[in-house]
Amino acid sequence: MADSSDEDPDIWIRSYILKMNKMKKTLYFLILFPLFLASCSEDWIDLKPTTEVISLEAIKNLVDADYAVNGIYSTLQSYEYYGARMQYYADVTGDDMQATGTNKRSSQFYMMISNTDNVYTSLWAMPYKVIRYANNILAQIDALQVTPSEEAKKNDLKGQALALRALALFDLTRVYGSTYLKDNGASLGACIITEPVGPDYMPERSTVSECYTQVISDLTTAIPLLMEAKNDGKINRWAAKTLLSRVYLYKGDNTNSLLQAEEAIAGARANGYRLWTNTEYASATGAWKSKFTPEVLFEVVNTVSDRAGNDGIAYLMLRSGYNDIVLTEAFLTLLGEDPADVRHGLTKLETSSSSYNKTRPVYLLKYTGPETDVRNANIPIIRISEAYLNAAESAVKLENNDKAIEYLDPIVNRANPANTVEGTTVTLEQVIKERRKELVGEGHRQFDAMRNNETVTRIGGWHVSGLIEEVKSYNRNYFHAILPIPRYEMDANNNMEQNPGYSR
């Protein structure tokens, strides 16, 4: 993937969309669009050249299926999806991170000024790209003739396609639909598409509840098919189980969330995964400075020859890069409650001053990688630490204090070995604070706040002057808490219903 220019990265997308509208096409035309797969020189992934077309008829063996699945990972890698936008969306709309100005790539989300006409289109289009790739694979893979020794590989590829389709639909549902717990999933979510469809297909939006049902179905089907062993750059059983625990947590099904998180932790540990140690966490050579570490269950892979480039999350958070996103004063105050917290090692002042203020913002150093060029850093999507936090939160809500201690204490003690929750009653506030400190910059905060019915209060000395009053403090009833369906999709599909508060 080539690095983009400093121009608005969505100008070409909007131009293309306008042309498509004039031709009376829909997004779902792309369901049958050829799969153009990016090349990569690294051993972890084997892709065909960009000119190679994988059509519906071309998946004739496991090699073809493997190439097609790699096309999904290439889509996830894009700066328009998990390469950047999906990672920073929930953080800058929350209270822990912010844009550094009104003209930055993250500004639209941070300022919450999206409308039908100006919204970035990628968080709608890219997940559906994943879904159509997955549907193409799933429509054919069962018919492939394989030897007994190849059956496990076939199952794993099918499981990956199902799990990644689930991830994409879950992302669409939480970005464009209200949190499940607002109205028990009754409001509109995304369009559920589970098979290849033609260019005239115009789906209706399903409810949030129906979307969750589909996501859970895909994940529960995928999990027994997926391999248990570590599979660098690919989703495996324990990553899928952790994702399923997250889905149940968002749904308010704490019993199943705890069950899946516990199984994910036990299974992952049996296969070589573990929490980073305190000394590893912020060291110059460990944890965030490495790739394929034992704590990361699933990560997007970046290499010198294949990466999201300048628009990737690492470069956006770099002072000497695009200088786009920094930590908020509110987050630093929260982290500052414990000066010995190891996670201070992932923050950096713009200057050598020992204190921060509006003119000396603090940057997050999670996406640094093992090389000198941060653009080559992998991007963690699911860590085993999330499974611990999911389990702790579910246990608190189930009033199971023993389990809450069991799973929260390793996170608290890892942050500062002098701290423990042993012998205490763990509160939901404690768990939420720990999620904020542990998962900052990984795309969780606003979603967590909305599902727990928190009010997001964006305070502090360096929020930009263009931030309007109504977005400085909001809850899940504020219509800008979810994004509008893009104008091109509304124009192309007469069955599409817009989110409340936005014009059609």
Give a nutshell description of this structure.
This protein is mainly alpha-helical and 504 residues long. Helix content is 41%, strand content 6%.
Quick tags:
two-stranded antiparallel sheet; disordered N terminus; mainly alpha; Serine Threonine Protein Phosphatase 5, Tetratricopeptide repeat; 504 residues
Describe it for me?
With 504 residues, the chain is mainly alpha-helical. The chain is built from 18 helices and ten strands. The chain has helices spanning 11-22, 62-77, 85-92, 107-111, 122-141, 151-176, 180-183, 208-222, 237-251, 254-270, 278-281, 313-316, 329-335, 384-397, 401-415, 428-439, 445-451, 487-492; strands spanning 35-36, 53-54, 97-99, 296-300, 325-327, 347-349, 362-364, 379-383, 456-457, 473-474. The strands form five sheets. Strands 1-2 form a two-stranded antiparallel ribbon. Strands 3-5 form a two-stranded antiparallel sheet. A two-stranded antiparallel sheet has the order 4-8. Residues 1-55 have low confidence and may be disordered.
Write the layout of secondary structure elements.
Layout: H1 11-22, E1 35-36, E2 53-54, H2 62-77, H3 85-92, E3 97-99, H4 107-111, H5 122-141, H6 151-176, H7 180-183, H8 208-222, H9 237-251, H10 254-270, H11 278-281, E4 296-300, H12 313-316, E5 325-327, H13 329-335, E6 347-349, E7 362-364, E8 379-383, H14 384-397, H15 401-415, H16 428-439, H17 445-451, E9 456-457, E10 473-474, H18 487-492
Antiparallel strand pairs: 1-2, 3-5, 4-8, 6-7, 9-10
